[in-house]
Amino acid sequence: MNEGRVVPIAITDEIRTSFINYAMSVIVDRALPDVRDGLKPVQRRILYAMHELGLASNRKYVKSAGVVGEVIKKYHPHGDAAIYDAMVRMAQGWNLRYPLVDGQGNFGSIDGDPAAAYRYTEARMTAVTEAILQDIDKETVAFKPNFDESTAEPEVLPCAVPNMLVNGAAGIAVGMATNIPPHNLGEIIDGLIALIDKPEITLDELMLYIKGPDFPTGGVMSDRGIREAFETGRGSIRLRAKVRFEERNNRESIVVTEIPYQVNKTSLIQTAASLVRNKRIEDIANIRDESDRQGMRLVFELKRGARPELVLNQLYKFTQLQSSFAVNNLAIVNRSPQILPLKRALELFLEHRAEVVRRRTAFELRQAQERAHLLEGYLIALDHLDEVIALIRASQDGPEAKRGLMSEFNLSEAQAQAVLDMRLQRLTGLERHKILEEYRELQEEIARLQAILGDEAQLWRVIRGELREVKKQFADPRRTQISALEGDISKEDLIAEASMVVTLTRGGYIKRTPLTSYRAQARGGRGVSAQRQKTDDINAHLIVANTHDYLLFFTDKGRVYREKVYDLPEADRAARGNHIRNLLPIAEEESMQTVLAIRSFDQDGYFVFATRQGVIKKTAIREYGNINASGLIALNLMEGDELVSVRITTGSADIVLATRSGQAIRFTEGEVRDTGRATQGVRGIKLRSDDLVVSLVVVDEGYQEQIELLTVTECGYGKRTPLSEYPRQGRGGQGVITMRVTDKTGQLVSLAPVLGHEELLVLSEGGVLIRTRVKEVSSYGRPSQGVTIMRLGEGDRAVSATVMPDEEALGHHAPLAPHLN
Are 39 and 89 in contact (CB under 8 A)? Predict the structure, then answer.
């Protein structure tokens, strides 16, 4: 090799240069659409080749192989598979809002089935494509040499249809990608006309015409994110399937009639079936695809008793029944990629149309002027017909006759040649009249065309009229419904509402167990083992709550924490559960005193607090709506005091405080002033030196005639006593005897209001739980000691009793009965 011809270069420079060239080639000439016609080069070449082959929408179909071959031969020297794939996509009505290729044969399906080989399928243009190519033969767009310079191809198509916005585009280039959503043609044209009429139009005004993307597969689209995408050219839009609920043979079904854009139906079914098999969705009995030529119909048949709304939320969360479309309006503008907001994209399309109309008008004007020029020659010749005939007869040949006509009658070369080519029949009087009429019409046409070129208002009037004609021909109703969809599917949306028994041991272990796991027993029954416990892990709290309720955990130090019931670990009766400190940041020196369930903090009502030392406090529920992860001070405690119980009240209830020695005091809630969250409260009951408060009862005003107070002691004794036997007293007194406390009965464990239809759950220190009907507990007077309601083993004692509403009340979220501690 001649050393003088070797040019040493740094490999880093060569790689950098080569990669930049490659990247720009991919960006500009392969992956991104041109903003003017919305087409990538391969798509443009396919459509132009079909135009050159004469495959109009009213002509017969031809083999796809012939189209692909023509494209490869003249315009796109690449693999046939890539060209055919691009052609197939332009024929698929579930991918393009307005298909550009009319395919005959198997062009794939929304199920993901591939198209048949190109030797089997046939194709032609659609009417929309004809509008896109309209006037291409009138020098409306620039042409460039093809790859081998054997012919020319258009750099862009005239595009009477705003194709980029109505059909969208998707493509991955080097370092960038585009994802333009399709829109409704009628809406886009209305927006274009509004922009012509008012160039300074605002985005909000544009959105009165263009509501949002309109996807070929329909579905439902969230109204959130549309404005951001329109304003910036980027954004995310949530899509959902269109569904309805149907009932047949006492079974509910979820019927899907439209799915989100670019979702594969077969893949969707397989995903849902896998979720059912793996028990992630448990209430689907069967999945059927009943789709046919009439449309899509995907049926999810539910099990009896299933909640359709809950199952639908699960399908939205775990399958592509809900998806997001990431808008990225990236297109080529003057051979450079740009992100395009909606208004800018519309402006660029109108600029392109204005250029096309100008070039077309100039072409038509030139054609009209050339024709008028020839007609002027005809008229001169007809006015001097005898002289013209004599001159031609006297000429030796054609060139001599042409020169004679040009010199004698001042004709141009073109006019003279036209006169020589004129047929004899045009010399008749009738033909002369036709020539004069055509000449006058051409003069009018020339004036019209010159007016368009000379007056911008006339130009835009033409563009506006052509847009209206396109709308009249191709516009159709919107397919995608725009709705105020909720945000992300939350965890709560996926969890069925169910009654749970929540237990918390004194050792701090918590769990939830379905209420149905516990069987009701008659009074005096031995009960079932609630859970296996270590000897030093004694049950302390039991509450019945709905899975969607908040649980409020009040500690002896006056702090409150909260957690959703569904976030607690679920376990069976024999399991111990997880430690509470794995869920909540409770300090080592704090112990749990009260657990309450509440549906919402946005409600009227109060929390009433009672302390061991007989202090009572009342604070509005709304003041506790912002409990953060580290907890919140529920009330301030005096030194040496601790919180014993918290109840929910309506504001017009009676309050009863009970002590472990069997004393109780009843007073109206009005005697307790509403105070702020971080306050101490006032005296509720005057205690003896060795006595402490054990229970707080709240009785609503409307129930005071029917209410009885249910008393439970450590040794399993209990009774019901009418509330009327407890006289109202002034707050701060010593109260009256509620039960005669003896060694046989043991000290008072709890006092609870009942109507008689509730159920009572009593939990012992040894882990034995009994569930019995309240009406099976005998009614006795206030000073009596009651009867045995629970037989306890030697050394065992009752530590907790809970009155709960029946299943129907729980299902309707009635106010929960007070929970005893």
Answer: no
